[in-house]
Every structure is written in structure tokens, then in C-alpha cells.
Amino acid sequence: MKKERIAAQLYSVRDYCNDAHEIVETLKKIRSIGYRAVELSSVGPLPPRELARVLDGEGLTCCSTHEDVEELLTDPEGVIERLEVLGCKATVYPLPRDQDFTSAEGVKRLSKALNRSGKVFAKAGITFAYHNHNLEFHRLNGRTVFEMLLAETDPKAVAAELDTYWIQAGGGDPVEWLGRLKTRVPILHIKDYGVDSKGKAMFEEIGQGNLDWDRILPAARRAGCRWYVVEQDSDWENGDPFQSLKMSLAYLKRQFSD
User: Fold this and answer.
1) Which is the CATH superfamily of the domain at 3-253?
2) 3-class DSSP string for the chain
3) pLDDT for res 256
4) Which among 49, 66, 110, 249 is least buried, having the fewest CB atoms inside 10 angstroms?
5) What pLDDT score does 18 carry?
6) Stretches in the chain below the pLDDT threshold 50
């Protein structure tokens, strides 16, 4: 596992990406912290060509993007055009917004739509992945929705961007899922899981929560993960997401080779 394969998810710093000036300053901070790659999400209006210029100027790679879910399913060609400008080879379906997970038929409808788009992306040499949250661990007829989605989608067209926090929140085991989906997890969302003094679940900097990284990271390596994306939705150290990203990177650098 190489340190340059650790990326920062820009959703973590979404409050600092509202316009062109903020985006430029945020990317400078991300690079100065030590990240060499980012996953784009929740970035304000900045033309792809200009964004690509800024990323290149800071020495940052765009490892993947989170795109609008409707556009991913209805206009994958438009997404591909942007990715080509960014020099990016992966995109992610980030959230099953407005999807029906109350029935097997609803899950099958989404699976078919994911397959259709995934084949378009695959033909263009783009990896298309599905990002899980905890809602996919709802059970239907004895199986989780996540199991059903993965069974109904073509591994050659639809990969998985596993999220360690949300697997834990859904009652799953990140290590088990990495083993189950080996070769199908090109991107891993690294997020730690903790609880506050009242027992409420909370996000933590990597190494500060309760997830067993001594098991998770080797399992990710065995699964062939190419990118390790650090994300922290909230609960930042001193309310500062940049400080949290720095703490997480410092921990991970001790686990990764040069």
C-alpha cells in the first residue's frame, strides 16, 4: 500500500468549497497537509477544465468523483466527458436517493439502471462503483439490500466503494465484506466509528475510533483496493475538518509504505 494512494474526500471540507476562490484555497490546504489525491464531491461551480488546471497546479490527482445520481443513471456520457477533462478513471453512485428499498422489485429496478450505466462507463474505460451507507443493510426476505444489489449487478460493470463507517453502522463487518468482494473494491472509504459519552454514534479521525484497522487495512490490500479515501462527515477535531484530515493522514502514513 503506497502513501500516494491515500486520498481526501472533499465532502469532508464541503463548507470550504462554495466558490472558485474557496476551492482553490481548499485544494492548497489539502496538498499542504500531505494528500496527493482527492475524491471530488460537493464542490461548488467550477468548470471541469479550470478545476483540472487547479488540481494539476497543486500536484493533486483526481482519483474518483461522486456525481449526481440522476445524471449517472440517465446521462453517463455527460459524466464521462467531465471525467476525461479531469483525467479521472473512476466515478461513484454516492447515495440511493429516492430509490425504493422496501421491496425486491425496487432493488431490481435500481440494479438494472446501475448495470446500464456501468456498461457505458466500462466501454469508456471508467470504473463505476456503488457507495454504501447503512440503509443498504436493511433486510428483505432474509438478505440485506446490499447483498441483493451486488448479486443483481454485473461485477464487470458495477464495482463497490465500501464505506467502513457505514458498514459498521449497518451491523456488518468491514473485513468480512472486503473478503467477500475481493477484486470488486477498487476504492475504500476509510472512516472511523466511535460513540460519545451518551452512547451516540459519531465519526472519528482514523485510529481514534473503535474500528480495527490492523485487520481492515490488510484485508483491503488483499482485496486489491487501489485507492484509500479518507472521509469524515462531521464531529471534526476542534470543529476543523482540515485538522481531522491531517490527523487521519498521520495515522495512515504509519501503516503505509513509501
Assistant:
1) Divalent-metal-dependent TIM barrel enzymes (3.20.20.150)
2) CEHHHEEEEHHHHHHHCCCHHHHHHHHHHHHHHCCCEEEECCCCCCCHHHHHHHHHHHCCEEEEEECCHHHHHHCHHHHHHHHHHHCCCEEEECCCCCCCCCCHHHHHHHHHHHHHHHHHHHHCCCEEEEECCCHHHCEECCEEHHHHHHHHCCCCCCEEEEEHHHHHHCCCCHHHHHHHCCCCCCEEEECEEEECCCCCEEEECCCCCCCCHHHHHHHHHHCCCCEEEECCCCCCHHHCHHHHHHHHHHHHHCCCEC
3) 84
4) 49
5) 94
6) none
Residue 257: left if φ>0, alpha if ψ -120 to 50, beta else—which one?
beta
Q: What is the number of alpha carbons within 13 Å of residue 162 lying toward its C-beta?
A: 32
Residue range 45-62, pLDDT digits in tens: 899 999 999 999 999 999
**Domain ranges, ordered by start, for the chain:** 3-253
pLDDT for the residue numbered 151: 97
CB atoms within 10 A of CB 242: 18
Please give the backbone phi and psi of residue 51, each rounded to the nearest 5 degrees, phi first. -60, -40
Cell of 106: 425496487
- pLDDT for 2: 86
pTM of the model: 0.96
Instruction: Say if residues 245 and 26 touch (Cβ distance below 8 Å).
Output: no
For residue 258, the model assigns a pLDDT of 66
Note the pLDDT of residue 193. Answer: 98
What grid cell was written down for 62?
483526481
Report the candidate in 56, 21, 23 with the shortest Cα–Cα distance to residue 40: 23
Distance (Å, rounded) from C-alpha 117 to C-alpha 122?
9
